[in-house]
């Protein structure tokens, strides 16, 4: 029950924070989560908590790809989705970023939460996995994370 409450609170915070930051800093950051067209001339440094959380989320989304291919069952997919929610919550509560970097990160986290919640609500909804992969593809374009190797999927 506490996990579900945390997930609802985290989702609400992500939505409110991303919206308010986008509105107050619209001149600083282009936030377009639906198209993945964030424009950044330089990547922001990923702090240790961000690197740790995003690394775990990446592995969990890769696990969901195994679900798409029928290599794991729906119960395991629901567990992975719960792990993604937990790790998004970890990033939100432990990551310390500058406001512009935070504004760029929130659409990525929101997409990951949407996908995780969709899988938990309906494990047959494998269409929720592709947007999570796209969100993960935006991460290294925006953040300098030495632990993140492109093509390591």
Topology of this structure?
Layout: H1 2-24, E1 44-45, H2 48-68, H3 74-94, H4 99-121, H5 129-142, E2 143-144
Parallel strand pairs: 1-2
Helix pairs in contact: 1-3, 1-4, 2-3, 2-5, 3-4, 4-5
Largest sheet data: 2 strands, parallel
Spatial extent as radius of gyration: 15 Å
* Helix share, percent: 55-70%
Please report the number of helical segments. 5
CA(first)-CA(last) distance: 33 Å
Strand order of the biggest β-sheet: 1-2
Q: Indicate the low-confidence ranges by residue numbers.
A: 1-9, 11-40
Q: Structural class given helices, strands, pairing? A: mainly alpha
Counting copies of identical and different chains, the oligomeric state is single chain
Number of domains: 1
The shape is elongated
Question: Can you walk through the features of this model?
Answer:
The chain has a two-stranded parallel ribbon with strand order 1-2. α1 (2-24) packs across α3. It is mainly alpha-helical and 153 residues long. The protein has helices at 2-24, 48-68, 74-94, 99-121, 129-142, and strands at 44-45, 143-144. It has one domain (2-144).
In brief, what are we looking at here?
The chain has 153 residues and is mostly helical. 67% of the residues lie in helices and 3% in strands. It has helices at residues 2-24, 48-68, 74-94, 99-121, 129-142, and strands spanning 44-45, 143-144.
């Amino acid at each position: 029950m506490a996990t579900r409450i945390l997930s609802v609170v985290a989702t609400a915070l992500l939505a409110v924070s991303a919206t308010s930051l986008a509105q107050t800093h619209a001149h600083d950051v282009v936030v377009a989560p639906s198209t993945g067209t964030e424009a950044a001339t330089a990547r922001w440094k990923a702090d240790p908590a961000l690197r740790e959380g995003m690394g775990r989320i990446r592995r969990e989304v890769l696990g969901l790809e195994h679900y798409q291919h029928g290599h794991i069952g729906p119960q395991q997919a629901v567990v992975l989705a719960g792990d993604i929610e937990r790790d998004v919550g970890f990033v939100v509560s432990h990551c310390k970023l500058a406001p512009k970097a935070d504004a760029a990160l929130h659409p990525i986290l929101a997409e990951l939460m949407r996908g995780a919640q969709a899988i938990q609500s309906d494990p047959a909804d494998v269409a929720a996995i592709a947007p999570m992969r796209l969100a993960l593809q935006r991460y290294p374009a925006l953040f300098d994370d030495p632990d993140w190797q492109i093509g390591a999927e």
